[in-house]
Every structure is written in structure tokens, then in C-alpha cells.
Amino acid sequence: MQTPNSTNQQTVILSAAQRSRRTCNCSSIAKPRTWVPQVSNLRPGKAQQIVRCPIHATAFRRMGGKALTLAGLSAILLIAGCRQDMQDQPKMIPQRGSDFYADHRGARPQVINTVARGQLQEDSYFFTGVIQGANGYREEQNTLPFPATMEVLERGHERFNIYCTPCHSRVGNGLGEIVQRGYKPAANLNDQVRRAQPLSHYFYVMTHGYGAMPDYREQLTPEDRWAVAAYIRALQLSQAASTSDVPSGVQVQKLSDVAEQQNLPASYAQPWALPSTAVQAYPPTKEGTPAMAPANPADPLIKIPASKTAPAAAK
User: Fold this and answer.
1) Residue 42 is part of which domain span?
2) Domain boundary among 32, 55, 81
3) Residue 186, domain CATH
4) 306 assigned to some structural domain
């Protein structure tokens, strides 16, 4: 293998026509201007020619200079266009302070007496079930905020069977299926205390809960709560109706006769008894029971405090 030196390097003199060409035509030249025999990396021990074309080298140098110039101009334009004003935009970000207001709070307090759209709730009795009494206390009313049509009762019947029967049973005696499996006995909606309560009391209990009973405001809309309350009143009437409540010309059948016609046992028409599997969830104690549920018996004595006298009007 020979090493290149001044004696064995061969130089090709290009003609003026070839030097004036815009494009390189290396294949038309017999030999490259300079070549250096080297060992190939792909084929060890084999000499490899490295062609160094002066025309290509000059073009590459020119292209590299133009690319470098273009990249520099682009960087200058990018830096000049990226200002901090785009980052510090004049807007309020939640839970952040602000130098614009005197209290340095970005979140502004709500305007007094402002109500969100669709939440005006002008009829407070429809949404709360209570009114402001003359003595300043909230009072329940025995009225329905809309007519009790058959559609309303059917809707209340459907919602009652879905959400109320597991505890109160379908007839409202407080002996539902989960009570028979050890849950605390629910209120008997047919006893004297519940029948004497105003209609809006059931709406208020469904809205806020009572004792061990949770609230159902998320499951039942205000319309559905009133419909359930109306159905409870109709259910109470059906469980304590007399012959005088039946319209004239309507035949009344005994429940025992209906059970016999349906091939049901005789006990079906008898009053329901608390099964042996139904036990009080917690024994009665002086401290009461969790969630402020009434202790035994299931129907505690309800004491209503005397109403305060309304303050006299200022003269």
C-alpha cells in the first residue's frame, strides 16, 4: 500500500470550459483532482479512492453559509416576536391574587341579592315546605302547592315504591324488607301521630332527613317530593277508610275475601306483625342513638314547644 506524497499525487488541469460550468460533471473527468488511497472500512485491506471535487466543495460551503444565515435571521425574528406581554395576560386566574383590586383578591365577592339563572325559587313554600309564621318560627302547612291530580298521585306512587318501600313497606306500616333483616324499624305512616302531621311535614323530612332516615333531595326533585307526600296522604286514607268515605254505588270488598280469591293465605289480610328477625339496631340508652335517631319505642312521644307570642308592633 502506497502512501501519498508530492511525487505520486496526480493533478488534472481543468480546461476553461470545464471551470465555467455551473454544474459538476465529475464522470467526464478522467481522474479526480486529488485522490488518496486509503483502507476501506467496509472492505479491510482494499484501497478506496476518496474523491475531492472542488466544485462540489465550493457549493456545499456556499449552501452551509446560506443556511446558517437563514437560521440566524429566524432566531432573531423569533426572539423579537416573543414578548412577555403574551405570558402576563390581563386576566383573572382562580384562587390567585390580583393587584388590580384594593383587597388584592382575584375572586370577587358575589353581588348581594344576585340569583343564578334558573334558581330564583320565588315560591319558597314549594321549595322548602315551610312558611314564615307570625311568631317568627317556620310553620308547616297542610296544603299542596299544586292540584292533586291523578297524574300526580301516580307519580308519587311510583316514587314511593322505589325509594320508600324498602323501609316503610308498600302500605306504609314501617315494616319493610330491610327492617325484617335487622334494620331499625321505620316510622309507621298510618299511626295517629303521622296522620295528624301536616302534608308539608313529609316534604320537609324528605328534603332534610329525620333521625336514621337520610335525605332524598338528590334522588327526588321538589315536584316528586310533593307527589310522594300527596300519595302518603292517599295511602293513609286507604288504610284507615270507613264505609262513609266510599262513594255511593261503589261495592266494597273485604281484604280477606280478596285474599281468598287470589289464593293467598288468610294471614295476608291480617295486620302485619314485627318479625323475629327485626331487632332494634342499637339498645336504648340515655345518650340516644347514632344520628340522633329516636330511641325505643319506635313511635316516641313528640312534644311540640309552645309558640312564642309575636312581639308587639312599635308605635
Assistant:
1) 21-81
2) 81
3) 1.10.760.10
4) no
Tell me which of 202 and 74 has the higher pLDDT. 202
Q: What is the pLDDT of residues 52-65, one digit of tens each?
A: 555 555 655 666 66
Distance CA 139, CA 8 (A): 119
CA–CA separation, 146 and 226 (whole Å) = 9
In a shared domain, residues 173 and 234: yes
Q: Are residues 128 and 183 in the same domain?
A: yes
The CA-to-CA distance between both ends of the chain, in Å, stands at: 129
Interior/surface letters 54-93, b for 16+ CB within 10 angstroms, e for the rest: ebeeeeeeeeeeeeeeeeeeeeeeeeeeeeeeeeeeeeee
The pTM (predicted TM-score) of the whole model is 0.52
Cα atoms in the 13 Å half-sphere on the side-chain side of 251: 3
The total of structural domains in the chain comes to 2
Give the pLDDT confidence score for residue 122 in this predicted structure: 84
